[in-house]
Specification:
The structure holds 2 protein chains of 2 kinds. Chain A is α/β, with parallel strands linked by helices. Chain A is 43% helix and 13% strand. In chain A, the strands form 5 sheets. Chain A has a 7-stranded mixed sheet with strand order 1-2-5-6-7-8-9, sandwiched between helices. In chain A, β7 (162-166), α6 (175-185) and β8 (189-194) form a beta-alpha-beta unit. Chain B starts with a helix and ends with a strand. The longest helix of chain B is centred in the middle third of the chain and has 21 residues, at 243-263. Chain B has helices at 2-11, 38-42, 51-57, 68-82, 110-124, 137-146, 157-160, 172-181, 187-191, 195-202, 204-213, 243-263, 296-309, 346-361; strands spanning 21-27, 30-36, 62-65, 89-92, 96-99, 132-133, 150-151, 230-240, 266-277, 282-293, 320-332, 367-371, 381-385, 410-411, 417-422, 429-434, 437-450, 464-471, 476-482, 493-499. In chain B, the strands form 6 sheets. A 6-stranded antiparallel β-barrel of chain B has the order 15-16-17-18-19-20. In chain B, strands 8-11-9-10 form a 4-stranded antiparallel sheet, with helices on one face. Chain B has a 3-stranded mixed sheet with strand order 2-1-3. Classes of the chains: A alpha/beta, B alpha+beta.
């Protein structure tokens, strides 16, 4: 077979140009019998790691699988096998053999801004790679985000070590000049020729031959590839339309004239280049110049954290023991001592000491700045990390899992994410830049890909479908990848004609567009730190944010090339806990840190008290367990000790719920069912499964457990387990899971397990998919669950205050937080011009708790510097509006807000009177000189005799200005009317027997449609409490309007009480009574704030489009439209 | 605006949607409702609501983009129409019209009669209306917009409007909220209280409006300016119906119109002649011109031709009581200096010819070619009416980069099939037969492959390979192979698409 390698290949990382994944390119080239391939995207190397990874996998005999991120949280991705029908004439083994000799050149297609034609550059060696990366970095840094400014001199300067192909272009005049200048500095220079079935192919080829001869540059054959098969032409046309912002009807000659720019067989290429066969032969010569592969990139740890004279390992050991002694003033327990020892050995063997030291260095800075932080991830739950203060999960109290995750053979780098207080994370980031410098520290990229909604929207636009049609289709796709698989059903659901070819075409193209990268964005906090220049590893680009730069590779790419990253993330709950600790110190005189709040002794009254509270489902505001689903689970799970919280955090997730793990676990936990651990036959360890599953009572709940079962009970090797993991995620689409099924079941039987058990075990893992939550993360989260619950239990006023001051975060709106505090016996005092500060604060009050004083920050639109001025100049008290205005110097706008918020109580004015007086003040800020004079001018005026404001009106106004009212609940005013209609109060439901038909009314707090979407949840609130409503989706359409639009709703339905006392109303009807709310106060339109968990106003799916800075703490659920 | 859409739908004979109709427009970043029909309002969809919210509540919606110009046009036309009631008419966007009916109501049987007449006529045209008559324009406006309409007895404004909400002041969100927050929710609340403190807080403007609403002071309306910049009209005490009279009137009108065009250095591109029949029917005739036009003689001649060429001849019924000639679209047009020989430039004559031909035979009958943006040769050019000023979507192909004309000027349509002897599978023709004659090919170049436009509903689904070929006699042809040998079951066919000069 003839030698040919395609060297001008653009993947879909040539955004909106290339129409194939890098994986497909590599695989197709292999199948067609190419001897190699060169991947070169426009001014970018963002896609090359994927090509590299695919080839690596193929060499190991693993079929390429694509990983699609669904969110930023751990485990939030889907693996999609896009080659299910890979009916190649080869077996995987043959493919593997071919892959081993296949050569991959990685580089970039340099696109110039000075009229120079495109030049494809491949590094010949590591040094060349560094040159290319720095060249691209220079171009990127000159331009704004997503662009790159390069000129020919830039390349001439950096040409050594690069093999170059000049791609002639009729539109670009600089061909001659480029050849002339480059041939002077480079001996590895080629002139690219393509036979694209254009009108003048042969004439052009002849012309190029002459030109090549004139410059002494060899001609090389390429096909200037945009996609892997001709069938992708339509998708490429659509991409062109999206890029140009035109519809396919009007795109005209902006589209490619034909479908020839795909990978062709070597024979076909030979035929096309018949007049010039040496151009084909040159591809072999070219590849011989390339001696670079991405596995040559050798990552070097920064040396800062290691003092001179120490080896990293020795320094880590020294530090660990030193700090461990501080952690355990009474002496290090022997259990911990042995664990630290074994961990240090493991770290030594794997050479990870610098990694731990780097993280320690960052954490230490945070501690110096008194910023709370906590590590999580596989390596974070170690005794070493506890000693170093990276995590607060004490190994003496809990069974730690370190060695289980950091296996010697896995070859995966350790994983530690560090969460910081979200309000102060920026300080840490700045510290990292300062310490390591911008040339050595960079943030990883996040590849923003097409998701169902964006795909259908853009494809629809390109096909000329109207906005309302595409949005209809989009609205039926509930944010899941699998959902698109059934276009017809969705089209019908949207009320459109499934036989309409245009709509089918749009769906088809959108499905194919899924997962295509759209652009690069900076990752939330994944830092790469290196010892030498970062831009010799990977190009750096400007981010949209000023003073931010990010590298071109994302987390997975970085893993692939073995670079280590440190995740610096923000977590709202840490901010809240820090604020709470500060308030406790200030008002109660006790200083706490995370590690001080310990659940070590479940017997002690203090710890038991916390669990008692959680068991009741009293967890509003508590980290992770505050959602409706979690609150309902708490009374059933009845957590008694720390590990129960780890399970609680992990169990209310789609994985365990869909895998039906929840009920078996609950039955076993409640003693209704015995936990059985099947045993293998001799000579195997009969407790092998017990060891894996004991802590979850025999039910696999965590991601790690699924893999362990396969490795322990069926003796899967690491590679096999990895394969299983990939197959598991994609079992919906292909048959490879069958192989693993057979492998696992037969091996388990061979080892003496019962066949039924083996089969059941496998089914369980299969159902589990990749949605499981990692135990390592759950453990770290559980710590914060406990700490926040502890604060809530013993310092409810502090907890409420800190939560309010850390908003926006969590599920609940201020009104619910305040209400919850009051129900726990906290006195809450209204916002007041003479008493409040900007933040909510605490004031002395009769025991046991301080009183919570609402701060100015609760007033919508009130600026911080107004608050500061108000407080600083308060002196004694402000005595009148004029006094307040003149002395504080805040603008009239601020006074108006204060009056509207009814914050003039101590001045003796209600909101109406106050607002009336303020309205008279001149709107412009007066010059200081005239301020006093003007005061006098405001003499007496006619008495307006304003109508008195009703209490109901006050309440609604409170809601409107501060989103909460301390005066009353709006429902109070409607109670009489509702009672007459036979509507019960929320509390009233407690006394109604199960099964009775009831009506209940309240303000709508939350609407959710979790999981598979077959039920809609609504939570109502009235003056007595809350009520849960549930409506099956079959009835939803009928009441869609009411559910989506009501602010005040009446739910009618059957009462259902579970034995744990959880009450639901199974709704048969919902009525919108919002008009009553409006009628309460004509002057103030009340919009009770929905909680942040509400999916109709805060669709969960949108979060992934927006900035994922607020870490996802919501259990994953579907979008709601 | 929904009325306009429904009227359009009825006009086009489309079935009226059974779903609520809303009109949406982009406001900042969100798509929000700006109009809703009665059906939609019943379902709680009101202007101001975000479209996504509306969609969530009522998934089955008829949606239309807000077309501000069209709405404004319609309002203008309505105002035109209102001329029948009073000469003093003002438009109050977005959806109001004020007429000063001082001294005219007796013509319609008193105020009640006028209201009834107006209501009936407008309903017949498909408009929902609320009509109010009051002593001041402001009071009438308030009553129509915020009350139920109706007729306010003389001097009874304060009483009749007392129940209106303070929104009726239309003093802006801020003032309205301020008043409501102070507990002053109705006009009555304001009327009873001292004005000075109100003025101190909300400005004199607000108290002035209040006084107007209460009928205390009045401000005359500003009658709207006739909108077409150039308009000439003639009213006839006795309706005219004879063609000669009409032509005579048009001649006069053309002269008047062209005079004012000339004064402003403008020429008309689009004219409209409106014939107002005594019984209220209005016939409008549009006239397009390829070049800016301001010669009265030409205009009259074109108008005459247009009238003659009408398929539905102008039906004067009981005669026209008014004819109006207006310029709907114009262009700058500097006076052209004629050449020394006294003749206008030749191209001007061609355009003049085009105008005349188009006026006589209809715009669609005189066409020219424009470049069209497409790879497919037969789509790369398009014929459009010669007087249309539509700009081409593409550019004409230039010579190829190597001095070769890429495509022939002359294309066959449809392309005839030819019998070909060619090298299989990829080669160019060696011989071909066309119109029973054989041509031997000595030179060939290609193929240039052009793929079909996959997004079109068409039977043209295979790629074409074009060859430029030359036969022994030096004749050059552009032929293409439709499909590939050895792929697919359909036979490969050859076509002759064009000839090179």
């Amino acid at each position: 077979m003839s030698f040919y390698a395609e060297l001008a290949t653009a993947t879909n990382f040539s955004f909106l140009r290339g129409a194939s994944h890098a994986q497909d390119m590599v695989l197709t080239a292999l199948l067609l019998g190419h001897k190699g391939i060169g991947i070169a995207d426009r001014n970018s190397v963002a896609g090359v790691v994927r090509a590299f990874g695919t080839l690596e996998d193929l060499r190991k005999g693993v079929k390429p699988v694509e990983k699609l991120r669904e969110g930023s949280g751990p485990g939030e991705y889907v693996l999609v096998d896009r080659h299910p029908e890979l009916d190649q004439p080869f077996t995987l083994a043959e493919l593997q053999a071919r892959a081993k000799t296949f050569k991959l050149a990685v580089g970039a297609r340099l696109v110039f801004t000075d009229g120079t034609p495109d030049i494809i550059a491949y590094p010949q060696d590591l040094e060349g790679w560094g040159k290319l990366c720095r060249l691209l970095t220079r171009g990127n840094r000159k331009a704004k985000k997503g662009e790159c400014i390069l000129t020919l001199p830039d390349l001439v300067f950096a040409a050594s070590g690069l093999s170059l192909i000049v791609m002639p272009d009729d539109e670009k005049p600089g061909l001659d000049k480029a050849l002339k200048e480059l041939s002077r500095v480079s001996v590895t220079l080629w002139l690219g020729a393509s036979m694209g079935h254009q009108s003048n192919d042969l004439r052009r080829l002849h012309h190029l031959r002459l030109l090549a001869q004139a410059h002494g540059v060899p001609l090389i054959a390429t096909n200037d590839v945009l996609y892997h098969t001709a069938g992708q032409r339509d998708l490429q046309d659509i991409l062109t339309c999206i890029r140009e912002g035109v519809t396919i009807e009007t795109a005209g000659t902006r589209l490619e004239v034909n479908a020839e720019r795909h990978l062709k067989t070597p024979e076909e290429m030979e035929r096309l280049f018949q007049p010039c066969p040496h151009a084909i032969a040159q591809t072999e010569t070219f590849l011989q110049t390339i001696d670079f592969s991405l596995d040559q990139l050798r990552y070097q740890y920064p040396e800062e954290p290691v003092p001179k004279g120490w080896s990293p390992q020795a320094w880590l050991e020294e530090l660990t023991w030193r700090r461990a002694e501080l952690r355990y003033p009474q002496g290090i327990p022997s259990k911990v001592r042995t664990q630290i020892e074994s961990e240090l050995v493991l770290i030594g063997e794997l050479n990870y000491a610098t990694y731990f030291l780097t993280i320690y260095d960052i954490v230490r800075v945070a501690q110096d700045k008194r910023i709370l932080c906590q590590g999580r991830g596989s390596a974070a739950n170690s005794a070493v990390c506890y000693a170093l203060g990276i995590t607060a999960v004490d190994p003496a109290e809990h069974q730690l899992l370190f060695a289980r995750f950091l296996s010697k053979n896995r070859g995966e780098p350790p994983d530690i994410d560090v969460d910081f207080e979200h309000e102060r994370r920026e300080e840490i980031i700045q510290h990292i830049y300062e310490t390591y410098g911008r040339h050595r520290a960079g943030i990883a990229a996040t590849v923003i890909s097409y998701r169902p909604r964006s795909a259908i929207r853009e494809v629809g636009k390109a096909l000329g479908l109207t906005e309302d049609i595409t949005s209809r289709i989009a609205s039926t796709v509930w944010g899941s990848w699998s959902g698109v698989g059934l276009p017809e059903k969705h089209i019908k659901q949207a009320g459109l004609d499934p036989d309409n070819p245009n709509i089918l075409r749009a769906m088809n193209l959108a499905t194919r567009l899924l997962g295509f990268p759209r652009h690069l964005s900076q990752h939330v906090g994944g830092f790469i730190l290196t010892q030498n220049r970062l831009d010799t590893y990977v190009p750096i680009a400007n981010a949209a944010m000023d003073e931010r730069t990010f590298i071109e590779w994302d987390k997975d790419d970085i893993d692939r090339v073995g670079m280590l990253k440190v995740d610096v993330l923000g977590l709202g709950m840490l901010t809240c806990i820090r604020k709470a600790f500060d308030l406790i110190a200030l008002h109660h005189g006790k200083r706490y840190e995370l590690a001080d709040v310990s659940a070590a002794d479940p017997e002690s009254a203090e710890v038991a008290g916390v669990f008692e509270m959680l068991e009741k489902g009293d967890s509003i505001g508590v980290f992770q367990v505050e959602s409706r689903a979690q609150i309902n689970m708490l009374p059933r799970l009845k957590p008694k000790k720390f590990y129960d919280l780890v399970i609680q955090v992990a169990i209310v997730r789609p994985g365990p719920i869909q895998g039906d793990m929840v009920h078996p676990y609950l039955r076993r936990r409640n003693g209704e069912e015995e936990a059985i651990y099947p045993e293998p036959g001799p000579p195997h360890d009969k407790d092998e499964l017990r060891n894996v599953l004991k802590r979850t009572l025999g039910v696999p709940l965590f991601q790690e457990q699924a893999m362990q079962i396969a490795m322990v009970a069926a003796e899967f090797t690491d590679v096999e387990a990895n394969g299983l993991r990939k197959a598991m995620a994609t079992f919906r689409h292909n048959g490879t899971i069958g192989e693993f099924e057979k492998m696992m079941v037969t091996r388990m039987i061979a080892r003496g397990y019962k066949p039924e058990f083996a089969q059941r075990c496998f089914n369980q893992i299969k159902g589990f998919g990749d949605y499981g939550f990692p135990e390592s993360h759950a453990a770290s989260f559980a710590k914060l669950v406990y700490v926040s619950a502890w604060i809530k239990k013993y310092y409810p006023e502090v907890f409420a205050c800190a939560l309010l001051n850390s908003q926006p975060m969590g599920f609940y709106a201020p009104a619910q937080i305040v209400r919850d505090a009051r129900e726990h016996g906290v006195e809450v005092r209204p916002v007041d011009a003479n008493c409040s500060a900007h933040d909510n604060g605490l004031e002395d009050a009769p025991d046991p708790y301080c009183a919570l004083r609402i701060g100015f920050r609760q007033i919508d639109g009130f600026k911080k510097d107004w608050s500061e001025r108000l407080v600083a100049r308060r002196g004694g008290n402000y005595e009148s509006i004029e006094d307040l205005w003149q002395r504080s110097g805040v603008p009239v706008r601020a006074l108006t807000l204060l009056a509207d918020a009814d914050a003039m109580g101590t001045i003796g004015l209600d909101r109406r009177e106050a607002a009336w007086r303020i309205r008279r003040l001149p709107q412009d800020d007066p010059l200081p000189l005239f301020a006093a004079a003007q005061g006098r001018e405001l003499g007496e005026e006619d008495d307006m005799d304003l109508p008195e404001m009703a209490l109901s009106e006050h309440v609604i106004a409170d809601y409107q200005t501060a989103r909460l009212s301390l005066k009353a609940h709006p429902m109070v005013f409607l109670r009489e009317q509702f009672a007459a209609e036979g509507v019960l109060s929320c509390k009233g439901l407690d006394h109604v027997p199960d099964g009775r038909m009831v009506k209940v009314a309240g303000i709508v707090l939350v609407r959710q449609r979790p999981g598979k979407g077959n039920a809609i949840f609504m939570i109502l609130e009235d003056e007595t409490g809350i009520a849960n409503g549930l409506m099956w989706s079959s009835r939803f359409e009928k009441y869609r309007r009411e559910i989506m639009a009501s602010r005040l709703a009446v739910i009618e339905g059957q009462l259902q009480k579970s034995k744990e006392g959880v009450i639901h109303v199974i709704a048969s009807a919902v009525h919108d009574r919002s008009d009553l709310l409006d009628a309460l106060a004509i002057s103030h339109r009340a919009n009770p704030q929905l909680t942040r968990a509400d999916e109709a106003t805060h669709p969960v799916q949108q979060r992934s489009h927006g900035h994922p800075r607020n870490r996802r703490v919501v259990p994953k659920s579907r979008d709601f439209h | 605006m929904t009325d306009r859409l429904v009227r359009l739908a009825i006009q086009d004979g489309r079935k009226q949607g059974e779903h609520p109709l809303v009109v949406v427009a982009r406001k900042g970043n969100i798509l929000a409702l700006v109009g809703a029909d009665a059906n939609a309002r019943r379902q709680g969809l009101r202007p101001g609501l975000a479209f996504a919210d509306a969609k969530a509540r009522v998934p089955q919606l008829e949606v239309a983009e807000h077309d501000e110009t069209a709405d404004a046009d319609l309002l203008e036309r309505l105002a035109d129409w209102c001329d029948r009631y009073s000469p003093l008419v003002a438009v109050e966007p977005p959806d109001g019209i004020v007429c000063d009916i001082t001294g005219v109501s007796h013509l319609f049987g008193g105020e009640a009669g006028l209201v009834a007449d107006m209501e009936n006529r407008l309903r017949a045209q498909g408009f929902a209306t609320r009509i109010a008559i009051a002593g001041t324009a402001r009071a009438a406006r308030a009553l129509a917009r915020f009350g139920r309409g109706g007729i306010v007895p003389v001097g009874a404004e304060a009483h009749s409007l007392a129940g209106l909400p303070v929104e009726a002041l239309e003093a802006g969100e801020k003032t309205t909220t301020g008043l409501r927050r102070a507990g002053l929710t109705s006009i009555a609340d304001l009327a009873a209280r001292p004005r000075k403190p109100l003025a101190a807080r909300f400005g004199d403007q607000m108290t002035a409006i209040l006084a107007q609403i209460l009928g205390e002071i009045d401000r005359p309306i500003t009658p709207r300016r006739p909108l077409p910049d150039f308009v000439a009209e003639q009213r006839f005490a006795d309706p005219i119906g004879l063609m000669d009279d009409i032509v005579f009137a048009l001649t006069t009108l053309s002269q008047n119109l062209c005079k004012s065009l000339d004064r402003h250095g403008q020429g008309g591109r689009c004219f409209e002649a409106a014939f107002f029949r005594a019984d209220g029917k209005v016939t409008r005739i549009e006239l397009l011109s390829g070049q800016p036009l301001k010669e009265a003689g030409v205009l009259t001649r074109l108008l005459e031709m247009r009238l003659e060429a009408l398929i539905d001849p102008l039906d004067p019924g009981f005669g026209f009581d008014m004819i109006r000639l207006s310029v709907l679209a114009g262009d700058d047009m500097a006076a052209i200096q004629s050449g020394l020989d006294g003749k206008a430039m030749a191209s001007g004559e061609v355009r003049d010819l085009i105008d005349r031909l188009s006026a006589r035979f209809g715009a669609g009958s005189v066409q020219r070619f424009v470049a069209n943006d497409s790879h497919l040769p037969e789509r790369a050019a398009r014929a459009i009416p010669a007087i249309s000023d539509e700009s081409p979507s593409g550019v004409w192909r230039q010579m190829g980069p190597f001095g070769v004309p890429a495509r022939p000027l002359f294309l066959f349509y449809p392309a005839p099939t030819i019998e070909v002897i060619a090298e299989v599978p990829h080669g160019p023709p060696r011989r071909f037969q066309w119109r029973r004659a054989w041509f031997d090919i000595v030179k060939a170049e290609g193929p240039e492959r052009i793929s079909p436009e996959w997004w079109r509903k068409t039977s043209d689904t295979r790629a074409r390979d074009y060859f430029r070929i030359e036969d022994t006699a030096g004749r050059r042809f552009w032929v293409f192979r439709y499909g590939f040998y050895g792929i697919g079951t359909e036979p490969v066919r050859w076509y002759l698409h064009g000839v090179f000069p």
